Automatic annotation (TrEMBL):
It comes from Duncaniella muris. This is Uncharacterized protein.
């Protein structure tokens, strides 16, 4: 998920359980699943919102200031 200058990535308490849910409708290995989870997209947001696995977002804030 990206908004302005903030990049956030999901953190799941049980990634293996979430991976098994993802595999029910997707073909791919864990590397592809991790790429799916760490790449902001509408599909990722829909997947996260549709599953009751505990997920939180963490990220870093990059401050950009113009030189006078």
């Amino acid at each position: 998920m990206e908004a302005n200058n903030i990049t956030a990535a999901p953190q799941a308490a049980d990634v293996n359980a979430l991976y098994e849910v993802w595999r029910e409708t997707n073909v791919g290995n864990k590397e592809q699943f991790y790429k799916f989870l760490t790449t902001p997209s509408t599909e990722r947001d829909e997947f996260i919102n549709a599953h009751p696995v505990e997920i939180s977002f963490t990220g870093s804030i990059l401050m950009v200031t113009a030189k006078p």
